[in-house]
Design brief:
The structure holds two protein chains of two kinds.
Chain A (H helix, E strand, L loop, with lengths): L5 H6 L6 E4 L1 H6 L1 H16 L4 E2 L10 H5 L3 H17 L4 E4 L2 H10 L8 E4 H10 L14 E4 L13 H8 L4 E3 L29 H10 L5 E4 L2 H13 L7 E4 H8 L3
Parallel strand pairs in A: 1-2, 1-3, 3-4, 5-6, 5-7, 7-8
Helix pairs in contact in A: 3-11, 7-8, 9-10
Chain B lengths: L2 H28 L11 H13 L8 H30 L10 H29 L4 H4 L6 H32 L18 H4 L4 H25 L7 H10 L13 H11 L24 H9 L5 H5 L1 H4 L6 H21 L11 H5 L2 H4 L7 H5 L6 H15 L5 H13 L18
Helix pairs in contact in B: 1-3, 1-8, 1-14, 2-9, 3-4, 4-6, 6-8, 9-11, 11-14, 14-18
Classes of the chains: A alpha/beta, B mainly alpha.
């Protein structure tokens, strides 16, 4: 599979239908890169004409904004908007709820207006339209619990798309007590990912992983690269990494569809 | 009209006047905040107010307190119809003015009595929940001292008011059954009827005394309670409505972009850009209450310290210093202090060397926040503690250059590499060719 950049499309006198915004974690974090590849495989299999920005992409500025550095956020935003508008991008998909939220909600005021979707929403649509097919596959009968990302769920009210995607796996979906609007954060948001936690008696990701593990799932499904890191660490902390895997919904679908 | 009615009218006017005076002071304090337009989409705003404030929809998440709170809430609202009659009786020297409504009046009085009983049940249950059973959000440190007393005073006043109302009805009914004086048989007393045997042996004169005493106690109690509100967390019974009306209607993840910063950044990227006009001195973030928006300040006055925000907060649940409820309480405390300063100095604020940030809210609290919006989601009256937290973080970072060291590193990485980590931007597409 050849990943094309927007610049390559333009050079060929063509343009992509949708921009796949990879995000910093998706570009650099070894674990998240696997999710990026899974998303690309799904888009490719569904014959979606997509492109990435490649080296022209830069951080959306989300962690800077949540940490209070509005200058840095807006610098990042304006530069990204210049690139996106320059390429006349209309539609964006991203596997990171933080990028999703920032592009969708905070870029319009600064001149960046795009139709932005989270990968769970696009995958749901592709599955519903029959563009990709998952028939049971290797996750049939497995016990899966979904951890809601704050910036997809509470921040943007999307609780159903990831669940509808997971429902296609023919697995046993179980909910944690704190789910959907009451979902507990993994502990990474608000730039916590990039700093030591403040003094307390427990790590947030340990608290959340314990809640998930109490359901004795085979898989903890996530929809955010930061949640993925936090939950993976939490599972390791409980020494359950041998029996419980933390997987992004894109990975689950890509694997189940044998992509 | 007798002397009693004149006295009543004077007390009523004084009570209403004092309340108005205090409310105006609170409005003035709220207006110390920065401008923010929340007048758009009026239809949507009325709808959310009907659902969340009037309909208490967000209370339902926790069914037991929701039902108990509903008793007290409906009781409070409906019994006010009875208070209207009491006020008119007091002014005009009438007795049970609305009794001409006949059987409908019986129905009204009966429902007020049932509601009064439900209020009593609710209030006693609340007292037990707060003081006997261990419920973490009612035992946390920020409630020590006045806030805990405030809560119990409110419950105590409600018990006294409802008891006076029922005893008044019981003595009234006995006098009516004896055809004494102007006491007419009107109303139906499904609850106070059970109190009749307690007072049945009293003489007519003692009963009149009891009826008058409880009548006066009830109405003066209501006036006193009204004037207690502006000093109390209980003010939420009024402010909940405007506060929900002025809710943030945007997606919760949408944090405002600061116009002042947009100007600077635009000029940096393009020196010929025309800046947006901004009123007043430009500050990058909030240090004190005057730097917050009026909605933040209205939030602070609306908070009734229920602690649902704090009990949902991931930082608080894992033992960190942050409590969203405490953020609201501290904002209100500081605002009250600033208001008193203005009163003392003839209308202008004289620098007292203190500020909301540092003197009330510490950086450690702010840096524990994951911006997960759980507190915002949990609040039954749509208070937004996160908005204050982020504005104070902005002050720490942009005005005081005091982020935690690891965040400084993150900012540097982002500035230099376009990513929060130290990776080369040239490697962004490596994933596409790696196996």
């Amino acid at each position: 599979m050849k990943i094309k950049t927007v610049a390559e499309y333009i050079a060929e006198g063509d343009s992509p239908e949708i921009l796949f915004w990879v995000g910093c974690a998706g570009s650099f974090d070894d674990r998240a890169k696997k999710v990026t590849k899974a998303v690309a495989k799904i888009l490719d299999a569904a014959q979606v004409k997509f492109a990435v920005l490649g080296t022209e992409e830069s951080c959306t500025g989300d962690p800077a904004k949540r940490a209070g550095n509005e200058f840095l956020f807006q610098m990042q935003a304006m530069q990204n908007i210049a690139v996106l508008n320059g390429y006349e991008i209309k539609k964006i998909v991203t596997a990171c709820p933080h990028c999703f939220n920032t592009l969708k909600n905070e870029y319009p005021d600064l001149g960046g207006n795009y139709d932005v979707v989270h990968h769970s929403q696009l995958i749901e649509q592709l599955l519903n339209d029959g563009k990709i097919k998952v028939e049971g596959g290797e996750f049939k009968g497995k016990k899966i619990t979904f951890h809601d990302p704050c910036y997809l769920g509470r921040a943007n009210g999307e609780y159903e798309a990831p669940r509808s995607v997971l429902a296609k796996l023919d697995a046993e979906l179980v909910e944690m007590k704190r789910c959907k609007a009451k979902g507990l954060c993994c502990g990474a948001g608000g730039a916590q990912m990039f700093k030591e936690a403040e003094k307390g008696d427990k790590e947030v990701n340990v608290e959340r992983s314990e809640e998930a593990l109490a359901l004795q799932p085979n898989i903890i499904a996530v929809g955010c690269p930061f949640c993925s890191t936090m939950m993976t660490d939490g599972v390791k902390h409980a020494e359950k990494e041998g029996t419980v895997s933390v997987l992004d919904i894109a990975e689950l679908i890509a694997q189940a569809a044998d992509l | 009209m007798g002397i009693e009615n004149v006295l009543f009218t004077i007390i009523l006017a004084a009570g209403a006047g004092l309340f108005t005076w205090n409310v105006r002071k609170i409005i003035r304090n709220i207006q110390l905040g920065k401008k923010l337009d929340r007048t758009d989409q009026p239809a949507e705003r009325w709808k959310i107010m009907a659902k969340v404030a009037l309909g208490q929809s967000k209370m339902l998440v926790r069914p037991i307190p929701a039902i108990l709170h509903l008793f007290v809430y409906v009781g409070f609202v409906i019994i006010n119809i009875e208070v209207l009659e009491i006020l008119l009786d007091g002014i005009f020297g009438t007795h049970r003015l609305f009794s001409f409504l006949g059987s409908f009046y019986d129905f009204l009085i009966a429902s007020f009595e049932v509601l009064a009983l439900l209020v009593l049940i609710g209030v006693v249950a609340f007292f037990i929940r707060r003081n006997v059973i261990y419920i973490k959000r009612f035992r946390q440190g920020e409630l020590n001292g006045w806030p805990r007393s405030d809560a119990n005073i409110i419950l105590g006043i409600e018990v006294l008011l409802m008891s006076a109302f029922l005893i008044m009805n019981a003595s009234d009914a006995i006098l009516a059954s004896r055809n004494f004086g102007h006491y007419i048989t009107a109303g139906s007393f499904p609850v106070s009827g059970f109190l009749v045997p307690l007072f049945d042996s009293l003489s007519n004169n003692s009963l009149v005394l009891l009826e008058r005493f409880t009548w006066w106690f009830h109405i003066l109690g209501i006036l006193a309670f009204l004037n207690y509100l502006p000093y109390s967390k209980h003010f939420h019974i009024i402010l909940a409505f405007p506060n929900v009306y002025y809710s943030n209607l945007e997606a919760k993840g949408h944090f405002t972009n600061m116009d002042a910063v947009t100007n600077e950044v635009k000029l940096m990227l393009d020196p010929s850009a025309t800046p947006v006009e901004i009123e007043g001195p430009i500050k990058f973030g909030a240090k004190d209450v005057q730097d917050l928006t009026w909605k933040n300040l209205l939030d602070a006055y609306t908070c009734t310290e229920c602690g649902r925000c704090t009990s949902e907060c991931p930082a608080n649940q894992t033992g960190k210093l942050l409590s969203p409820r405490a953020i609201m309480m501290k904002t209100r405390d500081r605002l009250e202090e600033v208001g008193k300063n203005i009163d003392k100095n003839k209308g202008t604020f004289v620098d007292d060397g203190k500020s909301l940030l540092h003197d009330y809210i510490t950086p450690e609290e702010l840096w524990a926040c994951t911006t997960c919006n759980a507190c915002v989601e949990a609040c039954p009256v749509n208070i937004d503690p996160l908005n204050i937290i982020v504005d104070l973080r902005r002050q720490l970072v942009m005005e005081e250059s005091a982020p935690p060291a690891s965040l400084s590193t993150m900012f540097n990485n982002m500035e230099n590499n376009g990513a929060p980590w130290q990776f080369s931007p040239a490697d962004r597409l490596n994933w596409a060719t790696e196996s």
